[in-house]
Q: What sequence folds into this?
């Protein structure tokens, strides 16, 4: 690669010393200058003091995790190329990292050749960026000219492992590379020059590319990505970026397409494993739970009152623990069904008022037991008919209201408000409970995450309720937001689109 970038300043951030030292040895032999850090905070300090071009970043670390470090790197210097290091249990997080701007990933354990390959890809990417900047400065070529010109940029594009597609602002394909044709399954002799629909069959992706090409996303900091699948079972991830002219006018779009089939397969296997284990555990646990309840009812035969109280306490704790395990297994199965798309498949026309009323009435007994006020207010205007899966809507409402009941002390209030706002149905669940500290707001939708402090340590739960709600809201094409003040309460707001 003539006059290109060949030697880099590389930072390796990983809490495993074997990964840090092994990577440093390999990269140093390749001629790169290598810095290492055991934690995310240390890595950020290095980035402040050194000119780093590429970062190898572990996703699972103590302190700041990989996603937080990635987001901070994007703020500090978006030109830094980030390659995430992931293991079996973090495949889903690796996909999220690529959506947030990571260039590539390398799975643990990896051998020297794998590391050399992924670093070489990064060098090619950086060279492409540098060549693109030169083209922008020169202003001698238009997007249409790129296909005909035998330039170094075209050579780089042709050897990139990811699919690259460039359109003008009319949605006409002006450039594509062999990797794109191979990923999509098009003939190698397919040439540019036609509308985007001639190359891609996914209607939603074509619409997104046209929007980017027309400049609809020029001012967006977080450009949307799009996952789609092909008939041969391959899963792809597309990320678009507008191409801007000298006066910030949109000249078209460049689309990067990555094959994520392997990650999807591993993710599916993980879900199947969870579902299988959950099914096998639920039946014996239910039997144990029922037998404990029977023994508790028949405990009056103990020889002394002291023995009775001790045995009753032990058995009652065991019964509570088995109930918690059964609840967690149920939540795991719900998550597996959401990931498989088994929930929200059968949408029906339903009246939100009826679903809301039924759920609130069902949970009033639980609220009354804690001496809580539970009220439902529906706007004066009739709510629109909603096209949704009734079980999904019931699960969203049930989990949010149950959470409010669990985290609101005796004597508190819970208000549910439903109204139409534009083309959306808005449902608000507001409580006067314990509230959430600001640093935990972004974590409450993570699986198994529970806030642990003096106020919550006696509240039982699986940490799966809110992830289930988030998954269902996303499946329905909606949005969920939360506002909270510690000691004063929390407000969860759900927006669901009205589909005519």
A:
């Amino acid at each position: 690669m003539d006059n290109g970038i060949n030697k880099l300043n590389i930072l390796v951030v990983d809490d495993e010393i074997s990964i840090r030292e092994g990577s440093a040895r390999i990269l140093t032999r390749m001629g790169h200058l290598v810095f290492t850090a055991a934690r995310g905070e240390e890595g950020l300090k290095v980035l402040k003091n050194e000119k780093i071009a590429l970062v190898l970043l572990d996703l699972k670390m103590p302190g700041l995790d990989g996603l937080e470090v990635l987001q901070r790197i994007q703020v500090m210097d978006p030109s830094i190329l980030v390659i995430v290091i992931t293991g079996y249990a973090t495949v889903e997080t690796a996909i999220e990292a690529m959506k947030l701007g990571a260039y590539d990933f390398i799975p643990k354990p990896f051998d020297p050749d794998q590391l050399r390959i992924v670093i070489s890809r990064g060098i090619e990417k950086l060279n492409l960026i540098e060549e693109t900047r030169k083209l922008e400065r020169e202003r001698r070529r238009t997007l249409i000219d790129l296909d005909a010109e035998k330039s170094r940029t075209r050579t780089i594009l042709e050897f990139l492992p990811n699919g690259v597609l460039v359109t003008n602002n009319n949605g006409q394909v002006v450039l594509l590379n062999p990797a794109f044709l191979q990923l999509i399954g098009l003939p190698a002799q397919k040439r540019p020059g036609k509308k985007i629909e001639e190359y891609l069959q996914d209607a939603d992706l074509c619409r997104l590319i046209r929007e980017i090409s027309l400049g609809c996303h020029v001012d967006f900091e977080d450009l949307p990505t799009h996952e789609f699948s092909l008939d041969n079972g391959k899963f792809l991830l597309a990320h678009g970026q507008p191409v801007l002219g000298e006066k910030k006018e949109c000249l078209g779009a460049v689309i990067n397409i990555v094959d994520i089939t392997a990650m999807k397969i591993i993710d599916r296997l993980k879900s199947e494993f969870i579902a299988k284990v959950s099914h096998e555990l639920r039946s014996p646990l239910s039997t144990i739970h029922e037998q404990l309840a029977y023994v508790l009812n028949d405990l009056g035969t103990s020889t002394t009152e002291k023995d009775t109280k001790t045995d009753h306490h032990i058995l009652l704790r065991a019964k509570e623990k088995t109930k918690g395990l059964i609840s967690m297994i149920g939540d795991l199965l719900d998550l597996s069904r959401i990931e498989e798309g088994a929930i929200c498949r059968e949408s029906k026309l339903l009246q939100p008022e009826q679903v809301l009323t039924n759920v609130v009435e069902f949970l009033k007994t639980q609220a009354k037991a804690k001496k809580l006020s539970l009220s439902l207010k529906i706007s004066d205007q009739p709510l629109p008919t909603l096209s949704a899966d009734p079980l999904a809507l019931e699960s969203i409402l049930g989990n949010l209201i149950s959470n409010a009941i669990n985290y609101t002390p005796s004597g508190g209030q819970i208000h549910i408000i439903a109204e139409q706002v534009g083309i959306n149905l808005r449902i608000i669940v507001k409580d006067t409970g314990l509230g959430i500290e600001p640093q935990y707001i972004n974590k409450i939708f993570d699986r198994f995450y529970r806030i642990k402090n003096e106020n919550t340590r006696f509240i039982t739960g699986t940490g799966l309720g809110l992830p289930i709600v988030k998954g269902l809201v996303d499946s329905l094409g909606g949005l969920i937001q939360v506002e909270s003040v510690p000691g004063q309460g929390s407000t969860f707001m759900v927006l669901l689109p009205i589909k005519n």
The chain is about 45% helix and 20% strand.
